[in-house]
Amino acid sequence: MLVRVLVAVLLLVAGIIFGTLGTMVHSATIGTLALPWGVVVALAALGCLLAGIRLLSGGRLNAACAGLGALVAIGVLSQRSFGGSVLITNSTLGWVWIGGAVVVSLLVVGWPGRRVID
User: Fold this and answer.
1) Cβ atoms within 10 A of the Cβ of 105, count?
2) Which pTM does this prediction carry?
3) pLDDT tens for residues 36-84?
4) CA geometry: angle at 68 spanning 67 and 72, to 5°?
5) Total tally of structural domains belonging to the chain
6) Is 3 among the domain residues?
7) If we measure between CA atoms, which residue out of 68, 58, 49, 55 comes closest to residue 4?
8) Could you give the C-alpha distances from 50 to 26, 42, 81, in angstroms and in order?
9) Separation between Cα atoms, residue 89 and residue 94, nearest integer Å
10) Which of 43, 56, 84, 111 is most buried per CB count within 10 Å?
11) Using CB atoms within 10 A of its CB, is residue 8 exposed (0-12), middle (13-18) or buried (19+)?
12) In sequence order, which ranges of the chain are alpha helices (DSSP H)?
């Protein structure tokens, strides 16, 4: 039981790290065309993290812990700081990052498991 709790806490921390890094790069664009590569890479990395955890652990709990950690980090970093700066602005990219992270987390955690037919 202690191992399961420690794994859940470590995956929560991993989710917080991915949510923080994704928040830092989500608004990055390419050149004058403003192609939003940052949000695409951040959502893909979050999806790969959660899908990998779900596939390796065989259950939903570990992926849910990592997804919860990412969503908590995104929620905390979307608040206005003491100096008045905001990391996730009220823009299309900000809403795509927040909504995309929720959708990716729900899809990976809620995806049906494999059924073995004997």
Assistant:
1) 24
2) 0.86
3) 888 999 999 999 999 999 999 878 899 999 999 999 999 999 988 888 7
4) 120
5) 1
6) no
7) 58
8) 18, 12, 29
9) 5
10) 43
11) middle
12) 2-25, 37-57, 60-77, 92-110
Q: What is the pLDDT of residue 27?
A: 84
- Residue whose tokens read 């191992």: 3
User: In this structure, is residue 99 part of a structural domain?
Assistant: yes
The answer as to whether 103 is a domain residue is: yes
Distance CA 27, CA 53 (A): 26
- Give the side-chain half-sphere CA count within 13 A for 25: 16
Q: Which residue has the tokens 């470590």?
A: 10
- Is 39 within the bounds of a domain? no
Task: Determine if residue 74 is left, alpha or beta; phi over 0 gives left, psi from -120 to 50 gives alpha, anything else beta.
Answer: alpha
Interatomic CA distance for residues 66 and 37, integer angstroms: 23
Closest to 44 measured CA to CA, from 110, 106, 82, 97: 97
What's the token pair of residue 28?
A: 């990055």
